[in-house]
């Protein structure tokens, strides 16, 4: 009957999990909270900026001619796919709809529209140049556009829209420098953080590549969106496989120790309840559960399982043990919760989720171990079979404490001597994206000349129009700096949305229809063109003179709509026009130039410096929170143990384990990140459990033997679950796994050296 009640409880929790939990894998959840306008701008660019939507594709596996043909076919397929708003392989400007839009509005957008460009002499000279272009490789395109655009306004616009640097052209499409890969750039409709939509875009590319007949691995796909999709798959795979492996390994260990399915169920019940309650609490508090949080939830097994194991092993043959250990059990739970408080109040939403999961999971698991497990056991305590450990005789002495103290002091000295070199300050290394993924993206990005936004010129205004007008006034400055070599190129939204005054001036520069027709007739003298060949040109100029100014709405449904959405944003009660900058030679001098030219309305935003500052601020805040957590733990220990001396004896080996674990990681070449701090907080909670169990080992040999067996089982389950996590391909989970597995072993060793751990028996059972 009791098992039936527990089964009904699990069914209810499973229903709640299935109905309410929404899993997401937005990597920006593991970025620090923003406190300044620049930081908010950085996160916005990472989540939904122009670069976040950019997907780079490299085709390989055939000779260059075939790759060029494959590139053209792929570009055609993707251009008509709903997952993409823009696709280019260097052979075309963009979609036909965009070309027609730019052609229709070229006289409002082209900076070379001036009255002198439409005189008879200027038109004659221009038409002569067009004749020369007929013999060039692009002569076919020139001939097709000539009747409508003899002055080349569309070509001028094209030059403004292409990147500052481009790959080499081979057979009319982009290739890498070695001619082995055909390159394409695509812009997804969905933002980069939407891993589900990005996965669909990646799948569409792979589906379109499949029939192209390329060998081996035919396509390399990179970019933030592709990373989001791949990270989602990797995290999901790690959570399933590594979590499954750790659960199976722990169950196998429990089956060996207890030799009873009922006993294994007794241990598993508090753990499962704790994880389920923790996940539901995260969903309730944050509105979703990050995939990494779920992966971490599986590792909570290694910590939550300590409590039911401690209860069962201590209760084996000792009916009064539960009352004796209740205070220690409660203190272990509370101190673990206190160690996770720093996570719950973290500036990283992802880390805050881990903190809430840990706190709720541990409280529920501890409470279930204290009250539910004895109720389910109904007086039938299992027989406990000892782990096959070697016979160890070890007692805490002045010498062992001295050795532990010397090792700790040496670790502190080593860390102090190398500080701050071992802090991980690069925000890129804090993302779930692996180093291999980022290296591949950097290689393709370098080949493509694709934007890797590190510097932005942010122009502010009270309205969208004001911000764009100020950004437009910056263009001559940027052109001058570009000609001086101070920067390689730029991309400004003001080229697509010129101010109304500028557009009016360009329309006013267009001659009246009769005057233009007379100038054109004069210009055609001596040239081999029919008199009526340029009627479309005359019609377009006539229509342009009466058209309304170009607005953002005109770009709706074109690839440039998403670009404008990313580069013209509203933030903190003002509008920002963002100009991306490439190849700035001297950022400080360039910032000074911008400040002087714009009277402070434009500022240089160094996203790399901002990201480093965010990490530095968070590291400082994390250390402060850890100190507060440690103080709270010390207070709990003093109150719970009713002695400053006993509290110090318990706390000392735990803190020493943190220092030694950090020193070992640094010695192995690891840079300590906020995720290692997370793991060290978990180590603190685990170490406190071990120290408390040892501190209250009992008053006779039988009780102390049970304590030792409980500790052996606890450390084994912890090392298994977190040791498996060390094989994760996700940097966040791997950092936590390695650190906690190492820290757990050090915690037990130092607690034994400080508090004492007499021999671990190899007896087969600990029986009544």
Automatic annotation (TrEMBL):
Keyword Cytoplasm applies: no
Transmembrane segments: 239-258, 265-286, 292-313, 325-345, 351-373, 402-423, 626-645, 650-668, 674-698, 710-729, 735-755
InterPro entries: MMPL_dom, Mycobact_MmpL
GO CC term (a single one): plasma membrane
Signal sequence, start to end: 1-18
Membrane topology type: Multi-pass membrane protein
Residue ranges occupied by any Membrane transport protein MMPL domain in the UniProt entry: 194-296
Keywords: Cell membrane, Membrane, Signal, Transmembrane, Transmembrane helix
Localisation: Cell membrane
Source organism, top-level taxon: Bacteria
Alphabetized Pfam families for the sequence: MMPL
Name of this protein: Membrane transport protein MMPL domain-containing protein
Source organism (scientific name): Usitatibacter rugosus
């Amino acid at each position: 009957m009791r098992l039936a009640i527990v089964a009904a409880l699990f069914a209810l929790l499973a229903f709640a999990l299935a109905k309410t939990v929404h899993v997401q894998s937005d990597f920006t959840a593991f970025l620090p909270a923003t406190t300044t306008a620049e930081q908010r701008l950085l996160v916005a660019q990472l989540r939904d900026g122009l670069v976040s939507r950019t997907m780079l594709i490299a085709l390989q596996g055939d000779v260059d001619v075939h790759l060029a043909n494959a590139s053209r076919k792929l570009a055609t397929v993707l251009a008509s796919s709903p997952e993409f708003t823009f696709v280019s392989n260097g052979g075309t400007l963009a979609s036909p709809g965009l070309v027609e839009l730019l052609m229709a509005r070229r006289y409002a957008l082209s900076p070379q529209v001036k009255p002198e460009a439409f005189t008879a002499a200027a038109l004659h000279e221009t038409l002569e140049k067009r004749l020369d272009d007929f013999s060039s490789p692009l002569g076919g395109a020139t001939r097709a556009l000539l009747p409508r655009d003899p002055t080349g306004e569309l070509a001028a616009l094209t030059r403004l829209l292409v990147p500052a640097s481009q790959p080499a052209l081979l057979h009319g499409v982009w290739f890498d420098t070695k001619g082995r890969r055909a390159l394409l750039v695509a812009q997804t409709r969905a933002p980069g953080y939407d891993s589900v939509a990005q996965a669909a875009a990646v799948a569409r590319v792979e589906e379109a590549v499949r029939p192209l007949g390329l060998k081996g691995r035919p396509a390399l796909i990179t970019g933030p969106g592709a990373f989001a999709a791949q990270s989602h798959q990797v995290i999901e795979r790690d959570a399933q496989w590594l979590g499954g492996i750790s659960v199976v390994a722990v169950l196998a260990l429990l089956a060996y120790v207890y030799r009873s399915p009922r006993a294994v169920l007794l241990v598993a019940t508090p753990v499962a309840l704790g994880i389920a309650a923790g996940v539901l609490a995260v969903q309730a508090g944050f509105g979703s559960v990050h995939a990494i949080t779920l992966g971490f939830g599986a590792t909570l097994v290694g910590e939550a399982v300590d409590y039911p194991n401690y209860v069962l092993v201590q209760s084996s043959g000792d009916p009064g043990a539960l009352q004796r250990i209740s205070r220690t059990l409660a203190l272990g739970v509370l101190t673990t919760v206190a160690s996770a408080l720093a996570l719950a109040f973290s500036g990283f939403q992802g880390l805050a989720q881990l903190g809430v999961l840990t706190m709720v999971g541990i409280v529920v698991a501890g409470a279930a171990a204290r009250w539910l497990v004895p109720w389910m056991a109904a007086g039938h305590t299992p027989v406990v079979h000892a782990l096959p450990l070697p016979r160890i005789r070890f007692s805490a002495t002045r010498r062992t404490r001295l050795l532990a103290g010397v090792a700790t002091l040496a670790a502190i000295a080593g860390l102090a001597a190398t500080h701050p070199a071992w802090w991980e300050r690069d925000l890129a290394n804090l993302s779930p994206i692996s180093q291999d993924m980022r290296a591949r993206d950097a290689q393709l990005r370098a080949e493509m000349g694709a934007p890797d936004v590190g510097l932005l010129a942010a122009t502010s205004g009270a309205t969208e129009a004001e911000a764009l007008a100020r950004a437009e006034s910056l263009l001559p400055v940027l052109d001058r700096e570009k000609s001086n070599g101070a920067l390689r190129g730029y991309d400004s939204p003001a080229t697509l949305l010129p101010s109304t005054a500028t557009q009016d001036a360009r329309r006013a520069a267009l001659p009246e229809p009769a005057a233009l027709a007379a100038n054109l007739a004069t210009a055609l003298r001596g040239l081999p063109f029919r008199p009526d060949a340029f009627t479309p040109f005359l019609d377009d100029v006539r229509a342009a003179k009466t058209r309304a100014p170009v607005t953002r709405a005109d770009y709706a449904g074109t690839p440039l709509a998403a670009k404008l959405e990313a580069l013209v944003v509203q933030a903190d009660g003002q509008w920002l026009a963002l100009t991306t900058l490439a190849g700035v030679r001297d950022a400080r001098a360039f910032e000074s130039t911008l400040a002087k030219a714009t009277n402070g309305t434009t500022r240089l935003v160094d996203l790399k410096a901002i990201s480093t500052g965010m990490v530095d601020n968070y590291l400082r805040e994390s250390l402060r929170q850890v100190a507060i957590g440690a103080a709270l733990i010390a207070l709990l220990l003093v109150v719970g143990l009713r002695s400053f001396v006993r509290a110090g004896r318990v706390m000392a080996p735990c803190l020493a384990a943190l220092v030694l674990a950090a020193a070992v990681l640094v010695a192995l070449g690891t840079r300590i990140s906020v995720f290692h701090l997370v793991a060290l907080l978990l180590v603190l909670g685990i170490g406190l459990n071990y120290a408390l169990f040892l501190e209250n080992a009992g008053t006779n040999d039988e009780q102390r033997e049970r304590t030792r067996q409980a500790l052996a089982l606890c450390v084994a389950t912890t090392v298994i679950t977190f040791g498996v996590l060390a094989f994760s391909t996700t940097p966040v989970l791997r950092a936590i796994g390695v650190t906690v597995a190492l820290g757990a072993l050090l915690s037990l060793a130092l607690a034994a050296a400080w508090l004492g751990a007499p021999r671990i028996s190899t007896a087969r059972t600990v029986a009544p």
